[in-house]
Amino acid sequence: MTKQSPPIAIAIHGGAGTIVREQMSLGLQSEIEQALSDAAQAGYKVLADGGDALDATVEAVKVLENCPHFNAGHGSVLTHDEMVEMDASVMHGRKRDAGAVAGVKYVANPIMLARDVMLHSPHVMLLGEGAQAFAKSLDYQFVEQDYFFTERRYEQLQSMKEKGLFALSESRYPDDKKYGTVGAVALDMDGNLAAATSTGGVTNKKFGRVGDTAIIGAGTFAENSTVAVSTTGMGEYFIRQTVASDVAARMRYLDEPMSVSCDTIIHGELKEMGGEGGLIAMDSQGQHHFSMNSSGMYRAVITPSGDLEVSIYAT
């Protein structure tokens, strides 16, 4: 009898929120779906080669950070001062090690820097200029702000400056009302769970605003015995609800199934507070769950059986 290999799996998201089907051209949808597929496959290759779950999530997120369609890395939204300030975090489930950066301006892939904070520093979170100095100490090649500039993000910023907003009230693009965080969760051959999340934040943000993405327990969480979670949505609400760690706590203390824990929070407590968004979760058997209280979430999964599934809309 052939010995069955341990399960491996990966799930990713590219943001949740109002995604208008009628405004989505076939060409744009195809490009987004291809990017989601590429990201999932990049992470899965690491797993299939025997690599660690954390490295798999970072590889997947890097693909999304490099794509202008997502609000992370290259496609990040602009602050009030027409800059980017990016946040990212990672967590490894074996010992619950974690790393995070916030307010990063010149690093093309903040998710890599978050992993390096975990691996090469005694800290969990580094901020702004300190995070940049840490990156420089590791010989990161910095990029100019022009690298992050896209016409779409500039148009969004000008529109919101005119209205005095930091969240879009009307849409030109099919996902302008989407919260563009990207993330991944994975299970490797050794039974390790990991999660990674990255974002450019919200358009027109001021005062060094930081959302849930950089905060362990709010936007990112992983522990091998229960679940790995990456969230996307209205960050202030996800912080207040400590969404990612709450999923694990409900599974741990109430013995709830993963899907029940996720949906109870996303469709119940979070929604009651006024928080819109969603999450991806994966348990120790490689089973996944997507939960959202919005009309869509860019997402993909490669299951333990090796099947690739890519989706955009809630229904």
TrEMBL record:
<dbReference type="Pfam" id="PF01112">
    <property type="entry name" value="Asparaginase_2"/>
</dbReference>
<protein>
    <submittedName>
        <fullName>Isoaspartyl peptidase/L-asparaginase</fullName>
    </submittedName>
</protein>
<dbReference type="InterPro" id="IPR029055">
    <property type="entry name" value="Ntn_hydrolases_N"/>
</dbReference>
<dbReference type="InterPro" id="IPR000246">
    <property type="entry name" value="Peptidase_T2"/>
</dbReference>
